[in-house]
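Thread: Modeling a multi-component assembly for a lab meeting

Hi all, long-time lurker, first post. My supervisor asked me to bring a structural picture of a complex we are working on to next week's group meeting, and I have zero experience with this. I have the sequence lines for every component (1286 residues in total). Could someone generate the structure of the whole assembly? Inputs are pasted exactly as I received them:
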Amino acid sequence: MTVNLVLLQLFTGLALGSVFVLLGVGLSLIFGLLTVVNFAHGAFYMVGAYVGVFALAHLGNFWLAMAAVPIIVGGMGLVVERFLVRPLYGRGIDYPLLLTFGLGLVLVELVRIIYGLEGVPFDVPEVLQGAVDLGIGWFPLYRLFLIVVTAVLVFALWLFLEKTSYGLVIRAGASDPEIMRVLGVDISTVWLVVFGIGTGIAGLAGVLSAPMTSVIPDMGTTVLVQAFVVTVVGGMGSLLGAVVAGLLVGVVVSMTALFYPELSDLAMFMLMAAVLLVRPQGLFGRKGLMG
Amino acid sequence: MSDTAEPRPKAYWSRIVDAIARHRALAVLVVLLIFPFVLPYEALASNIVIFGLFALGFNLVFGYTGVLSFGHAAFFGVGAYGTGIAIVHLGLPWWVAMLIGVLAAGVTAMIMGALAIRTRGIYFAMVTLALAQCVYYIVYQMKGWSGGENGLNGVIVGQIDLGFASIDLLDPMQKYFFTLTFVALAIFIFSRILASGFGAVLEAVRENEDRARACGYDVRLTKWLAFVISGLFCGLAGALNAIHLSVVPIEILHYHMSGQVVMMALLGGMGTFFGPFAGAIVFLLLEDVVTTMTTHWQLILGLVFMACVLFFPRGVWGSVLQWVRR
Amino acid sequence: MTKERHFKKGVQTRRQILKTGLAGSAAVLAAPWIGRPAFAQGESIKIGFPVPLTGPYGSEAQEQARCAQIAIDKFNEAGGLDGRMAELLVRDDKLKSGEAATRTLELIEKDGVDFVCGSLSASVQLAVNTVCAERGKIYNSISQSDAINEAENFSKYTFHEAMNPHMTAGAVGDYVFKNSGKRVAFLIADYAYGHEMARGFKVAGEKYGIEVVAEVKHPLASKDFSTFLPQIQAARPDVLCLCNFGFDQLNSLKQARSFGMKEQMMMVAPALLYNQRRAGGASVYSGVVGATNYYWKLEDEIATAKAFNDVYRAGNDGAPPSDYGAYGYAGVGVLLNAVTAAGSTDTDGVIEQLEAMKYDLYKGEEHYRTCDHQAVQSVFIIESKDEADMENEYDVFRILEKDGASEDMLRSCESLGL
Amino acid sequence: MSHDTPILAVRGATMRFGGFTALSNVTADFPVGELTAIIGPNGAGKSTLFNILSGAFPPTEGEVLFNGTNVAGKRQHHFARMGISKSFQITNVFPELSVQENVRVAVQAMTRRFDLWTPRSRYREMIDRAVELLRVVGLENHRGRLASELAHGEQRSLEIAMAMACEPKVLLLDEPTAGMSPEETVGVIDVILTLAKSCTIILVEHKMKLVMDISDQILVLHHGEFLAKGAPHEIRANDEVKRVYLGEGRK
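Re: Modeling a multi-component assembly
Sure thing. I ran the full set together rather than chain by chain. Output:
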């Protein structure tokens, strides 16, 4: 085992971590602000990949498809929030959880009915194919591209939440919905928008993952758990937490894969258990959230 | 319980429900006794009572203590593996094997509970999920004992000789009543625990932790004990499942199983005595019937869940109670 | 999209399968879960068929069911067993052992099936086998596994129509190690089937003196292989053996290609599936060498293959059957052949016939080895074609070599503990 | 233990939350059998001291002495079992349990915490005790109702009954009359005075007139620090207390 391999593995972990960040951010956003545990997150991810396939077939351009997916999936999220989740606010976390679980099953099955069981091919666009020599080893160009996309997305989200007046409203709403009512801001619109953004990011993660994995109706099931781990380790509702936790999980998984590969799935859960036992609210979570 | 004298059409039902509530363990038994005769096949009836017990045990933590656990597959699974390994690898008699399974589940619950009990709310759910996944991987990696991905096959009991009678577990009806005997015993014990002083403490903790603490109750210890007792019941369900199926599949430990039991409890009505059983019946029956009709059973199941949440938030049994008592 | 055609067939429910298959035979139009069907002429011969209709391998499973129905139809058209018709009872095992065990109990206890055939996973077939063996029902497994041959799981009621990983990996290994480099890396799905394939390769490689330069185990059903691949790449192997199945195989191939590994080493996959290749696309798979039990092009040389393909094509818009689909045809077909030969559905009589028979259903002659009831059959070494070399959308493989049916490919009965 | 040892005392109690010091070096005795009121303007540290005395959290520094023994750092339920019982500032009962069961559960905490087998309906003596306590607070006619159905004042009374259930040596009451109508207040004061005959009472209260009328001792806090302690007439005459209250009042 050479130093180069360890370095490459570390880098691989960071790249994998950026995928985890992408998966976790949407879930964390929705939970942090709405305290809704969105069990349909994986299903929206999967729908994102299929919408990508559909958009690519009709638009014929990867970049256009990539741009269309978050808009379409986010739009679906708006509909879901408005008509299905909204009636459940104030009934505790169990009900939205059960509802989104059911919704996840329905979405997966609808995709099965439309696209079949076998999965559809989805290839890396020509310009992003191939591998690059990093000096320590070869690395896929597409994964480098993903790191960039994730960084841009996180930065944009940060700008939106921290620097725009609407972002301020969202953050205020997260800390105390009552204040919003006093100020005369319509909190339900804020929640609608946040749910839309969260699902849109899940869809984007789906289409971006499509060229690396198989586009099949079941592709979202493991993703849901990974997203949960990232969210919980980082602290529910913390953007910074999701980023740090995503990268951390990526590196831990990658290093386990080097030294004890068959346990690399377990590594993620052990990390989560360890973090929660030491810091029950997650790395960057607020204390007291959710009792 | 309303004491208005005015005669109402629902008063009749109300009295029945009250009678059921008073003799709840007995009421469940009556239903379960006729069960295998009305269901499509006996194995489904056995499945339902086993999962009903699993959901019942889970509900002690979820419904009666107010703590959402996402790790109960660990107890169900360890109970099953404990029993299976004792029979397949150690060649022990079935009842010793079941005892081992139940105790193993109890020990697992003691450890998981001790680690997880200091977190609260959704974090408790996540810690239990993570710890249960650890159990899954540990069992998965113990290939020599557990069979790994292949599962543990050949958990065969066959004939049971009781001295005065013998039970043939290959006969589906006899197997159902064998299973039911244990489930009935468990329901009786469960009912006793709920009615006991400790049951009152659980209610108090669920209602108001701070107040319970101020009264002098050790809330953590109470929750932990409830968690362990719950683990024992779920372990028994797992042990019965191993004997029922003759195999212990690895997916029994997967978090999907934990999710499934949460769904059953919610679907039936959490915090009600009959809820978990009602949930298990509805869930498994629905799945069984719909699966045979269409490969798109998940669509139906998903829609039913959504409808339940939106229109029957108290669950099946909870809604019945509400309707009758209104 | 070519998949859609498959898919339309894919949504057939069990009832539809039954109906189309037995159109005209009023006996089985009643939905079996409501009650026992009315009997036209004596009780029908029932074959339970638990396969994962839903879940990631649903399309393979549905094809298994379609092909099994062809075997049923063939038997019935020939007059059945003195007028007794056969009937296929398909159940969804959801690719879960526990579900499969329950479904098998249902088939045996409620539906009273005579035989059980099916499954599409190593672990599921072992569970079905346990339930069947305990109740003395003949079970013919149609998915790969070494464990099912071993004394621990074998019973006299257990038959294994599918190939086993020892055979397939052995045959591919023999072909590859003879012709290519000796530096070999393994990517192994961490479950019995994965380890069995790796063992098969190593046994085959001993003779050629291969050097194992990397051996990486990945958890079953991994999505992301990027963390496993750099170690393999760094070891600079000549050959990479992918000891995994289905979507694990597709994902690892896809991602290995993105690391530029396809240009650096030869990729070998013992279980190279037709459907998987079509779902993954030519560019991902081109040049990958593997083994199969069946590829439709065999019809050029084998008459039974041609006959099977023709029936299948007629009912499926001209699409040829897949490898796993063919297993469904053979698994059920051989049971019915044995029933015909025995002249009854009596379990012991059928077992006797199965043990004695030589049969050619779709791929040349086969027989069951007496000690472990493993079907001794030809293994075909294939290579995935480039897009440019394909004559049509179904023309995805090139047959490189045919290893004729021989018991030498199997592990010895003694080593199995039998 | 001499007769003069206070039943409860704090020595140099300090409480910091992050950078904020809520209570600074407070030392005070609470003699056996007396009714002591803790008063002070908003932010004086009353609730913090109350929580330290009742064991909700330990002080950052300093000691809590119960019969002369330091008990700081013990968990809440230990305080309750030693005989330090409390009611809450905001109403705090078991809303979905019956009124009688609320009190009975509180009685049970002293004896049978982990009885998994005996049906609670067989705890005759506990039920009798619960009924008796409800009679003391005037709720004996509401035994069968859910606690959540009671009026606010009735819930406060119920809480006092629950606090008494542990047969406390010290009863801590946090604003027992908050949000009550004048009539309800009179009723609660009667209850408190009855209780004061049998145990030591410490109460946090901001209704000055009430405090002056019923207290034996008054402890005044200001900005987290000890300001004064004495009998009501002494406090009334204390210039510093006047300054603090009047000064606050002018703002």
